[in-house]
Amino acid sequence: MKKLRLGVLASGGGTNLQAIIDRCADNSISAEIAIVICNNPDAGALDRAEKAGIKTCCINHRDFEKRAAFDHKVVQQLQEAEVDLVVLAGFMRIVGSIFLEAFPQRVINIHPALLPAFPGLHVQQQAIDYGARFSGCTVHFVDIGVDTGPIILQATVPVLEGDSADDLAARILVEEHKLYPQAIQLFAEDRLRIEGRKVKILPAATELSP
Ligand code: GRF
Fold this sequence. Notes:
- By secondary structure, this protein is of the alpha/beta class.
- The chain is built from 6 helices and 9 strands; from the N terminus they run E-H-E-H-E-H-E-H-E-H-E-E-H-E-E.
- The mean pLDDT is 96.
- The site of 5-O-phosphono-beta-D-ribofuranosylamine has 15 residues, from helix 1, strand 5 and helix 6.
């Protein structure tokens, strides 16, 4: 089976990127990272990618007057790298129509809350302040809204008494690192179908009997 070519976009430390690098390396997902693009020159994700011998590209959004010009540049790099699936892994820029038209139904994101609860930023603190007993993470297709696209997979974690936002974020990240590779593998196996606002997961292909 041809490996799925991933374009990973990241802005920060890159622990989700690392989980994907590791699962590609041990062949638990049939994918390879064709390029890692960061908008932040100091992103730890760039170091992780370079260490793994993956092509990197830093496109600083501050160098662009208009968002559209930045978006076009990123899309151009993804297309040149012949990416099949765009994976947002802590990418702190809004992905708009320029991305979605270039990669229809081919952009996914991971969010550290159980959507549709707590979209946006600082969501671990929001979950704590709200008194939620559980939070978690969501992998979803990206649409034109913020954290509104069809949900692929979710995992839950408890919110414990006295949790700080960092405590909860760390507990959620453990699940993120398992969930994102799983979702990518479902995509690689062509088992995801968007039906309206829902994602149907097709059963695994069974071995054909002789
Ligand atoms: C993760 O919590 C992810 O859900 C959110 O941004 C964070 C990125 O962390 N979108 P990392 O850079 O992968 O460590």
